[in-house]
Design brief:
Elements (H helix, E strand, L loop, with lengths): L4 E4 L2 E4 L2 E2 H8 L3 E5 H12 L7 E6 L6 H8 L4 E4 L2 H9 L7 E3 L6 H10 L3 E4 L2 H13 L4 E8 L21 E2 L3 H9 L4 E7 L9 H20 L6 E3 L17 H12 L5 E4 L3 H4 L3 E13 L2 E6 L8 H5 L5 E3 L8 E6 L8 E8 L7 E5 L19 E6 L2 E6 L4 H4 L7
Parallel strand pairs: 4-20, 5-6, 5-13, 6-7, 7-8, 8-9, 9-10, 9-11, 11-12, 12-13, 15-17
Antiparallel strand pairs: 1-2, 2-3, 4-14, 14-15, 14-19, 16-19, 17-18, 20-21
The chain binds ligand LLP.
């Protein structure tokens, strides 16, 4: 059981709150997050190393609900955004614009203007053309935009191919060798201030050495730039630290990771920035669902939930594993079943041939480790209203997002 969730008196609790109580009051499907687990993970990053100045820019793409952002903003977190919409969310949640870094390969002029107006900390630029565009937009406003180049350090990592980003063949970043010339050009542009180097090698990475290898390549680039009169202060190492999805997974801790980075940086006078998403919120969230039916088809057994792939697409998209546990486990021998949703797609499954404690219609189950890339990737497929979200704090909770209604489903639509 991860921090924030445990069985007490035979039923699953989030902090001091029985999950069954939330289901009774809010209904299912429902995303439920532990505030103390989120804050604990954030603090683990923020307080990890005294030796090197660090700033933590929580990556919104993992979970951008206002309630979660507000929790982090109040603790002084910075944010990593990839769109104008994410900038809007941070500002709505009370985040400090001066602690925002803007990543992404396809920033539009409007998004750049919005970020310049808000006064963000850093544009992580990913191409020559983007550098030129940011320069033009900044000149127009008589501003100097703070930039870093996102370099591609060509480090290979073991993760799902859809979420590896640090190789030359990926669309992300600028080749680390070619970056040098672009830095020299950018340093001469009137609308820019060159501040840093950034990179992000992928997501769900367990091998700390891969991050260290990327960092060393970046440090070598910083030295070369120094030799050409360009001084770099900020190193943004992106996100990517993996989390355990299976109970038996031994993942590196946030502390191990930060210590490894700070060892490389000690005494260099550089400011380390990180953009963690998953490792802050993944384990802090579950998707609470009700068993609708049990069904047998030939030798196969199915457990049909009221949650579906529109609520959580990770199993269908990445064949990802998520523990699924009963909120009030029944006695009896475990069953082996496919655990699926009501959507009309064969890909609508949470688990296949999974052994779980026996469950009956009406029972509640929790799909675990879905605080990251869960709700944010949800959709209205099959015209299913999106789930409610709840933030638990001690024995109390707040509904941080109402369950959508049928009226929400057609907002902005019209017949002709
Ligand atoms: N910074 C940049 C530039 C990124 O592209 C990402 C994630 C992060 C930070 C945060 O990485 P994290 O700490 O969460 O690993 N939907 C996939 C994950 C996609 C990650 C995309 N980029 C999933 O569900 O596994």
């Amino acid at each position: 059981m991860v921090r924030g969730f445990e069985y007490k008196r035979g039923q699953l609790h989030c902090e001091d709150l029985p999950l069954a109580e939330v289901a009774g009051r809010v209904g299912t499907p429902c995303y439920l997050y532990s505030a103390s687990a989120i804050v604990g993970n954030y603090e683990a990053y923020a307080q990890a190393c005294a030796r090197v100045p660090v700033s933590v820019h929580y990556s919104l793409k993992a979970n951008s609900s206002l309630g979660v952002l507000g929790l982090l903003a109040r603790r002084g977190a910075g944010f990593d955004i990839v769109s104008g919409g994410e900038l809007f969310r941070v500002l709505q949640a009370g985040g400090d614009p001066e602690r925002i870094v803007f990543s992404g390969v396809g920033k539009t002029s409007d998004e750049i203007d919005y970020a310049l107006g808000a006064g963000i900390a850093l544009f992580n630029c990913e191409s020559d053309a983007e550098v030129e565009l940011v320069n033009r937009r900044a000149c127009k406003r008589r501003l100097r935009a703070p930039i870093a180049l996102r370099v591609n350090p060509d480090v290979s990592v073991e993760t799902h191919p859809f979420i590896a980003t640090g190789l030359r063949e990926h669309k992300f970043g600028i080749d680390i060798v070619e970056a040098e010339e672009l830095y020299c050009r950018a340093a001469r542009m009137e609308g820019l201030v060159v501040k840093g180097v950034s990179c992000h090698i992928g997501s769900q990475i367990f091998d700390i050495q891969a991050f260290v290898e990327a960092l060393r390549k970046i440090l070598a680039l910083v030295e070369r730039l120094h030799g050409r009169g360009i001084s770099i202060r900020h190193l943004d190492l992106g996100g990517g630290l993996g989390v355990g999805y299976r109970r038996e997974d031994a993942s590196p801790t946030i502390d191990d990771y930060m210590q490894a980075l700070s060892r490389e940086l000690a005494g260099r006078g550089l400011h380390l920035m990180v953009e963690p998403g998953r490792s802050i919120v993944a384990q802090a969230g579950v998707l609470l669902a009700t068993v609708l039916y049990r069904k047998r088809s030939g030798a196969k057994e199915f457990v049909i939930l009221d949650a579906a792939m529109n609520d959580l697409i990770r199993p269908a998209l990445y064949e990802s594993y998520h523990d699924i546990i009963a909120v009030k486990p029944n006695q009896g021998p475990p069953v082996k079943a496919d655990i699926v949703g009501p959507v009309c797609e064969t890909g609508d499954f949470f688990a296949r041939d999974r052994e779980i404690t026996p469950v009956a219609p009406g029972d509640l189950v929790a799909v675990c480790t879905v605080g990251a890339y869960g709700f944010v990737l949800s959709s209205n497929y099959n015209s299913r209203p999106r789930a409610a979200e709840v933030l638990v704090d001690g024995a109390g909770f707040t509904v941080i997002r109402d369950r959508e209604t049928y009226a929400d489903l057609i907002r902005g639509e019209r017949t002709v």
